[in-house]
Amino acid sequence: MRGGSLRSRGVAALEGGRCAQRGDRTTAQRPSCSSAPLSPLSEAPPSPPSARKRKGPRPKHVPQRMCVACRGHDAKRGLYRIVRSPEGEVAPDPTGRRNGRGAYLCGQGACWEKALASGLLARALNVEIDTETLDRLRRYAATLPLETSTAAGTAPILARTEGEHR
What is residue 65's three-state secondary structure? Predict the structure, then answer.
């Protein structure tokens, strides 16, 4: 506060008008400043170095991706990737390694229909998808083991073998 001391204005001051926690002037309205002295930084004794070490091998990192239709997260290997190549061609990517911008869809038939019909896939890939390509993607989706139940959204995605559509 400017213009006089804090005591002359009827406001209690702490440790010479300074807040012990912030270092700025304090007023009675500021609840974060207290008159209690600060405790030392090392309240708890440091733990021994052996207690901080993990036991066993480090867990392997599993990349996570999001379905463009239902926005559900899953492991990258558990989703189907659709890629827009640098030439502008939109095609399924069974390996998950083709060059280009990719979008992921989960194993639910409703997500595939929603993504293809409403233009969510086109928006995710930043490209206009023609009807011929949409039909080709629908035929590809028909060959996949997709879940059709509405309650399937809570169940884990069907287990797939390593060589099947990946």
Answer: strand
CA distances from 77 to 10, 62, 74, 160 (A): 68, 9, 8, 9
Residue written as token pair 């995605």? 157
User: pLDDT per residue over 5-29, tens digit each?
Assistant: 545 454 444 445 554 455 555 455 5
- List phi, psi (to 5°) of 49: -60, -30
**Dist CA 47 CA 4 (whole Å):** 49
Decide if 23 contacts 17 (C-beta within 8 A).
Answer: no
CA separation for the pair 134, 90 (Å, rounded): 9
Residue 108: strand pairing partners: 147
Hey, which of 13-17, 38-42, 43-47, 95-99 has the most confident mean pLDDT?
Answer: 95-99
- Residue 48 or 13, more confident: 48
d(CA 140, CA 94): 11
Measured distance CA(61)–CA(79) in Å, rounded: 16
Dihedrals phi, psi of 151, to nearest 5 degrees: -80, -10
Domains, the chain, ordered by start: 10-36 (no CATH), 67-151 (3.30.1230.10)
Neighbours of 96 (CB within 10 A): 16
H or E segment and range at residue 121: helix 120-125
